[in-house]
Amino acid sequence: MELKEIVEEIIDGIPNGYIFDAHTVSRMCIEKYSDDYLRNHANTGTNTNQFHGNISNVIRGLEKTKVEQIGKGYSMNIHNNLSECTFWRKKS
Which of 13, 49, 50, 87: CA 20 to 30 A from 81? Predict the structure, then answer.
């Protein structure tokens, strides 16, 4: 699966109205789609932060159809470091 397909499938599995962030989506990519995640990451030639920026961009690209941005905040990234992120709400 390509990254866009993975992210869309993850977001489709989030209940309508629920709030999430890209850190959560990144973790789910690693946990549920590890082989595809690694292949997509390797194919980009980017570091982890840049690749996870790509995941954020995919989410942002779904703003008109599946998600709405609700603000900024902090959450734990995959390295268990608190970092800034955008929070999204799954559209109904």
Answer: 13
Which of 76, 67, 74 is CA-nearest to residue 19? 67
The answer to whether the CB of 27 falls within 8 A of the CB of 82 is: no
* Residue at 51: amino acid letter: F
Ordered strands of the 82-90 beta sheet: 19-21, 82-90, 67-76
Tell me the whole-structure pTM to 2 decimals.
Answer: 0.91
In this structure, what are the phi and psi dihedrals at residue 46, rounded to the nearest 5 degrees? -110, 165
pLDDT digits (tens, 9 = 90+) for 13-66: 999 999 999 999 999 999 999 999 999 899 999 998 899 999 999 999 999 999
Q: Is the Cβ–Cβ distance between 76 and 7 less than 8 Å?
A: no
Q: How far apart are CA 36 and CA 51, in angstroms?
A: 13
Distance CA 60, CA 42 (A): 22
